[in-house]
């Protein structure tokens, strides 16, 4: 094994540091090397033990402060290396995604790829590193690409504008949202919903009669999730109004960290009113089949890419598709073990 000058310097610093932090009372005295041990009487020649103890004390006294400089430099170097490693890891996300899609394409007749948006391609107004390039390269393959999202915070038009500002070449017709699925259900059942949605998402329900509501449609609405509004929804559901959950995600990724999704609020209404909500977004099987309906392919000919082990990957697999879990967005270490059903062992 070859030793570089830098590694030799590191070794010397570590050895010196090890001596500098030795403490008689907490460590050395346990082995008979305490302050008053090994030291001869006045005029006696110091023994080997006494000389070693004197050396240790001298190194500790002289080197304690100077060691701060090289140790600080070493820590700074470690932080820089860690940051560079994370940047490289983020940049590899797109390549990893494409590699997995390529492997799947070689093993089955792949015709379509469904891609989650929030947490997979972007986090609020920031693109996931490498995502634009990965998407551009994926579009060069002979597969249809469709974007499927549970977002309920903004309309489809607003979402497209956000993605285009982030330099994603996405058209509105390529996006299928859980808001679209909810509107379809409301129209089919001729309901007049109380819409617990952000104001920016109401555009997708333009033309829907909301006078004298007889149903509750709930998504993620931080600005409207207050006691009065939720209590109104509770009373309606208690009186028999259907509860329609656009989705039940437990949490999602924001720029400032993880945040509660609509799932906990839906669960609260279900518990209070002793009912069960109709869920229209991911991970429901009908959501995936509806998203594939205009692509002319079956679930076995499509894959789903997302950052949510339960809603993206698990939901897709329950619908007959294969799923790819990316380590971005809300992904947390160990999420792959939560996928149900588990992916095939060769994936």
TrEMBL record:
One of its GO terms (molecular function) is metal ion binding. Its cofactor is Mg(2+). Keywords: Magnesium, Metal-binding, Signal. SUPFAM superfamilies: HAD-like. InterPro entries: HAD-like_sf (IPR036412), HAD-SF_hydro_IIA (IPR006357), HAD_sf (IPR023214), LHPP/HDHD2 (IPR006355), Yos1 (IPR013880). Residues 1-20 form the signal peptide. It holds the Pfam family Yos1. Belongs to the HAD-like hydrolase superfamily. NCBIfam families: HAD-SF-IIA, HAD-SF-IIA-hyp3. This is Haloacid dehalogenase-like hydrolase domain-containing protein 2. It comes from Champsocephalus gunnari (Mackerel icefish).
């Amino acid at each position: 094994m070859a030793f570089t000058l830098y590694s030799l310097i590191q070794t010397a610093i570590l050895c010196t540091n090890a001596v500098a932090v030795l403490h008689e009372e907490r460590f050395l005295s346990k082995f008979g090397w305490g302050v008053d041990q090994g030291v001869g009487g006045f005029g006696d020649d110091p023994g080997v033990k006494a000389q070693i103890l004197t050396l240790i004390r001298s190194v500790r006294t002289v080197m304690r402060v100077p060691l701060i400089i090289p140790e600080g430099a070493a820590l700074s170097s470690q932080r820089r290396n860690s940051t560079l490693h994370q940047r490289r890891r983020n940049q590899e996300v797109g390549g990893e995604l494409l590699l997995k899609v390529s492997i799947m394409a070689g093993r089955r007749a792949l015709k379509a790829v469904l891609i989650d948006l929030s947490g997979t391609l972007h986090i609020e107004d920031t693109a996931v590193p490498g995502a634009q390039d990965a998407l551009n390269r994926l579009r060069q393959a002979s597969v249809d690409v469709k974007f499927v999202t549970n977002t309920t915070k903004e309309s489809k038009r607003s979402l497209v504008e956000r993605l285009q500002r982030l330099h994603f070449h996405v058209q509105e017709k390529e996006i299928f949202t859980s808001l679209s699925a909810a509107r379809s259900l409301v129209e089919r059942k001729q309901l007049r919903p109380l819409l617990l949605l952000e104001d920016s998402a109401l555009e997708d329900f333009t033309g829907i009669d909301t006078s004298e509501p007889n149903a509750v449609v709930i998504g993620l609405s931080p600005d409207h999730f207050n006691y009065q509004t939720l209590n109104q929804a509770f009373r309606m559901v208690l009186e028999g109004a259907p509860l329609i959950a656009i989705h039940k995600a437990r949490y999602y990724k924001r720029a400032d960290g993880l945040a509660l999704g609509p799932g906990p609020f839906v669960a609260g209404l279900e518990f209070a009113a002793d009912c069960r909500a109709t869920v229209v977004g991911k991970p429901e099987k009908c959501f995936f089949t509806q998203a594939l309906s205009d692509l002319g392919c079956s679930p076995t000919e499509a894959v789903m890419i997302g950052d949510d082990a339960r809603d993206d990957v698990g939901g897709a697999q329950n619908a007959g598709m294969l799923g790819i879990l990316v380590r971005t967005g809300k992904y947390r270490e160990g999420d792959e073990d939560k996928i149900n059903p588990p992916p095939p062992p060769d994936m």
